[in-house]
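REVIEWER CHECKLIST
Item 1: Sequence provided? yes
Item 2: Single chain? yes
Item 3: Sequence as submitted:
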Amino acid sequence: MSISRVIVVHGYSATPSDHWFGWLARTLAPAGVRTLVPALPDSSSPDPVRWVETVVEAIGAPDDQTAVVAHSLGTVTALHALDRFGGDWRLGALIAVSGFADPIPGLPELDGFTRSRPDLRRTAARTGDRVVLLSDDDAIVPPALSIALGAALDAERIVVPGAGHFLADEGYDTLPQVAERILSPS
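Item 4: Structure as written out by the authors:
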C-alpha cells in the first residue's frame, strides 16, 4: 500500500509554517498525497491534553495509507494520540524527527508529555514503516533519547550528521529524507 495522507505534528514553539513542514506538504502534493499540518494550541506553552486532542482529531482514523510525521515534542504527542484509538487500527508509517518519549534534561516544562509513557510496543505492532531520523549533534533533544525511542519502536534509525534539531535557522527548511521515505517506503 502507498501513503495517500500525511499528518505532520509540529513541536514546541513551532507553527505549521515553520521549518520544513510546508515544504513537505508542497513536495508530496504532486504525488497526490494530502498533507495536513495542524496548528497545535499555544505552542510556546503546550498543554498535553489539548495537544493530544488536536492530534487525535487531525488523524481521524489511522489506516495503512496514512503516515504520521512528527518533529520533537510532536512525536510524543502523536504517540499519545495513537494510544487513544481503540479497535484494530493500522498505520502506514510513523516518521519521528528528533523524537523522544522520555523527559528532556533542562526542559521540565515539557515533563507533562512524558509523565506517562505511550504504549510504544502497541504502536510498533500496528505501524508498517517506522523510522527515527536524528542528528548526532542535536542540542535540544539528546540523540540518546531519539535512539532509545527508535529501539522501543523497533524503527529504522537514520542519522543525519551535523543537522542539529532540524530547524530552519539551522538550514533545514527542506527534509528530503522524509519525503523520499513517504514516496518510496522500504
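Item 5: Key structural point noted by reviewer: Residues 48-59 form the longest helix (12 residues).
Item 6: Recommendation: ____
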